[in-house]
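Hi support team,

I'm opening this ticket because the web form for multi-chain structure prediction keeps timing out on my end. I have pasted the exact lines I submitted so you can reproduce it. The total is 1001 residues across two entries, so I didn't expect it to be a heavy job. Is there a limit I'm missing, or should I split the entries? Thanks in advance, R.K.
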Amino acid sequence: MRSADEALLRIDGLSIEFGALESPVKAVNNVTLEVRRGETLGIIGESGSGKSVTAMSILRLLPKDQARVTQGRIWFDGNDLLEAEPGQLRRVRGKDISIIFQDPATSLHPSFTIGAQLIEAIRVHDGRISKADARTRAAELITSVGIAHADERLDQYPHQFSGGMRQRCMIAMAIANQPSVVIADEPTTALDVTIQAEILSLLRVVQRETHSAVIFITHDLRVVAQVAERVAVMYAGSIVESGKVDEVFENPQHPYTSALLRSLPALDHRAERQVSIQGSPPNPSDLPPGCSFEPRCDVADGRSVCTTDRPPLQDIGGGRTVACHFSGETEAVAVNLSRHSMQPQAIAAAAQVDIEPVLRVENLDKRFAIGGGLFTGAKREVHAVNGVSFDVYKGKTLALVGESGSGKSTTARLILRLHDPSGGRILFGGLDLAKSNGRQLRDIRREIQVIFQDPFGSLNPRLTARELVTEPLKIQGIFDPNGPDHVGELLSRVGLSPSQWDRQPAAFSGGQRQRIAIARALILEPRMLVLDEAVSALDVSIQAQVLNLLADLQDELGLTYLFISHDLAVVRQLADSVAVMFAGRIVEQGVAADVYGSARHPYTKALLAAIPGTDTQRRAPGDDVEVTEARIDIAEHGCAYRLRCPIAQDVCATDSPSFARIEGTAHDVACHFGAVPVEVGAP
Amino acid sequence: MLRYLGFRVLQLIPIMILASIGVFLMIHLVPGDPVLTVTGLEASAEQMARVRHEMGFDQSLPVQYFDWIGRVLTGDLGNSLVSQKPTTELIVDRMPATIQLTIATMFIGLVLGIPFGLISASRKGSWIDKMVAGYSSFSLAVPTFVVGIVFILIFGVELEWLPTASEYIPFWDDPGGALKATIGPAFTLGFYVSGVIARFVRASMVEVLGLDYIRTARAKGVGEAKLVYKHAFRAASLPTLTVVGIQFGTFLGGSLVTESVFNYPGVGRLILKAILNRDFVVVQGAVLVVVAIFTLVNLVTDVLYSFLNPRIRAGNGG
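Hello R.K., no limit was hit. The queue was backed up. Here is the completed structure from your submission:
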């Protein structure tokens, strides 16, 4: 018997390079870490930090023609996996060590049934198991991860499962052979927040039952706080700090960890400003000779040792390590990842009512016909947006919040008239946009500009930053090459230095691209910006920078924002009022402080409770979590939410709840039991 | 699924109408007077006028078209101007030879092309990959008549293993003889097809091998060989099917050059001879049949494709 303290898997001095030999991209630099039986090790880092590359290298899943391991060993069960013969490696893969990948939409083979893929996972390691026995085992497995009607489900293909269900299947596949190590690479990043909560608790149950060690890779600090016992923080390919999660988060020793924790948007209050880390991570093909974090570090303060000597990872006792020359100076930040008591805040909203809104949406409706095409039978209709009404006031931010499929992005597209509404009114600047067309619409589009989520796909790669921002002026026919340089002013304002103006998007990071997108949206001096998940693709330190920029611009220019997001913490930082959408309807709406502080709709409560790191989710010793069954359920009649609702009663099945104002507030809720505060346990 | 099938069959109608108009006009677009084919160059003006009237060429084009298409719909493609035999009969006589050749061609093309494509995709960048790339470029670049003639020179003239001119021997009558008689043209065409397929299989395989679900399978412990032929090829075979279908349809229309080089009695040679004889009735009829076959084969391919793709097959209410 191995002792519990002994490392099950140990990575020793691992370095990995990509790209050409002459100018290698150093993705991983001298990483050492280990994981013990039954423990969860979180590896946290922003994109490009090398966390996923490290994880993939354990089972040698990096593309052979691109990645090179330049040094290091990966010890497992007395062998170096990097030296393992193909046959030996294959026996480890999926049997002793298994992986759960990030995107369940692409990680399952579309042409094989779920059953076939599970059966293969079992039989590939033991051909003596008959197909029938393997199928029985597969059925047990998917039942154990909370999928009902296992026998039927096994014969279905991945596209017949929802994202959360597919991830459950991936987990079932990963635990099929009772591995001793499970690597989870951003397993919930592609999922909605309530689904994420389900998957995280499922992983916890699975780990408790299998006693496997889990390596959990994520960019999300809240998630790591919830699932891991120990954490390793990676930056620019190296581990900068590691230790017990609670200790690292409460008393970070590396300036990067500290800054990362401080830049996390708070849930319980709206901060004056987001704490952000200046600059962006270094280019991994051109790392500075000293500390990689030095250019962004507050602690270094120009001291030469930081620019010349790379700090080694030092043991500072108590199972903690840190790589910083001046770790003692790191500002101690008490970041409480749990929600503080959320007292209903003063009702500050009433004042708004008299002012004329900039944008008023009334009973907006959109139905999409699906099917009726080549392959399907009867035509079906999806009611993507169902009687949505809201006002957005000048200089304020309204956030539309919801999970994927809730209709929030469709609503934004209707306002921009990228889709034609099926009904309702969109009043803006004295016009009903729902009925406008041609010339009118073109003029209005100057007034409402949009910024999309994907900073990579939404900028023409062949134009320079300056050209991209100039383009809208040319389209509108108001570009004056001899006039004052508004484009330059604006580019400076969003934080791009003149030396960067003539570069193409490929030369910019995600955050910088989003800055270009903001400048492009603002060049026409719009009254309103629609921000469709505009910061969702950005790393947390960069996200904070962009949120600050948006807030400053709003103050300076009196801009009105419609902010679409699935991220409740981000919304909290920017929104004056919040509208929560579910299945095409707004279910709760009000001043941000009210909605966060005293949520009335069970769905809003579920969303808030599902955020990792909140009290209800906090991992406690000996806590007993159950596998909840995966759901697919938007009710067709009555209240759409009732199938997931913990307080639903008979009336919910028959009557669709209408909006009711909570007395003395500007807080509306569409729930039969919402007008009175009912205490609801988290689902 | 049935709806889809019905829709696709309905789609054939406008395609065939357009094709028939094209084929019909073809004869009027090429220079020269088809009447001369019947009367001979020495004919008098009256003779030519009489023949022109008999053949309906003095009518307006729409009248001629509807006249012709009406007969085509009853299965009458007209009689050959040279042999006086019905065109339908001529085509039906040649069809089995062409079908046999096409099947042999596709067999050779697939048997060579798929493994080449698989090997080069799984060893991307290796010398094998480069060899296969060279092979497929070569097979695509060298004209079929050169391949055919070289084949005849080697196996027919030098080694004397095979006849220098082939004939049609039905496979079920005499498998050995059929093999000998068909292998020449079949290899000539199959060589070309193998290049097309190898390229296509490689391209789709390289794409699929980089996908997440292949990584998942690898992480499960599936061996590299099985990964390639089971997981990746399953996905890559779908787009390959389309190319195979197009090739199949093309060769069912006969191959004018190869059939002529080997003197193989297929539809291709029928068309070529008819063109040389200015036998426009046969050309029109045969080309129309070829177009119809091509369209049908593509329809079958598409239907097969959607049947093999679970996302389409299991589509809502499918």
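A quick check on our side: Chain A is about 30% helix and 20% strand. Let us know if the file doesn't open in your viewer.
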